[in-house]
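Thread title: Can someone regenerate the structure for this chain?

I was given the following input by a collaborator and told the matching structure tokens would be attached. They weren't. Posting the sequence so someone can regenerate them.
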Amino acid sequence: MPTEQFALETLFDRHPGVDVDVLRTAGHGWGTPTALLWFGDAGDVEETLHDDSSVETATLLTESNGKRLYRIEWETSVRETLETLLGGSTLLGASADDGHWQFRVLFPRHDQLAAAHDRWEADELAVTVERITELDETFGRGEFALTDEQKEAFVVAHRRGYFKVPRDVTLTELADEIGITQQALSERLRRAHNSLAESTLHLTELTEDEVEPLG
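Best answer:
Regenerated them for you:
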């Protein structure tokens, strides 16, 4: 959903290149939500955070590799929007970039998801649903769509220390152990990495026709 309907609109207006990752949301329910947010690739955002109408307080906790971790307490309007947006669900993750927020949430039942959709429409929230999956697809083995050959190569490479820095084994040695060429092993590992990245980070880009409608 767009930042102007939720939070940090001023921040993205002044720092359009900023990216935000929610580390954790504390508190029971949304009555007194406190979020830990990483801010990256935007320079000094502290003054802007204090000027942003969606932020009640912003406290810098630490800096690491050019990123800053802030403890954010939201204003009432953000809390109310969160209740409308996520009521009845569990927040699994959230991030923001390019003026939009993205949430990953878990609804225990289909009727709770449908009720949430009705709330979004009633409050005229501009929510775009990118993907709906069943619980076993979200947390089960089906999410990591590796072929047997890719899984074998990945497991052997991990056990033999191929992904360590520095490596304990060369690609040629691994290929000889598995019984395939070095080129075939390299391609197999790259495909496995790509599948794992898409599954765990949800990097698959959906076209407009592939976006699954809700309701």
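Residues 139-201 form a domain with the Arc Repressor Mutant, subunit A fold (CATH 1.10.10).
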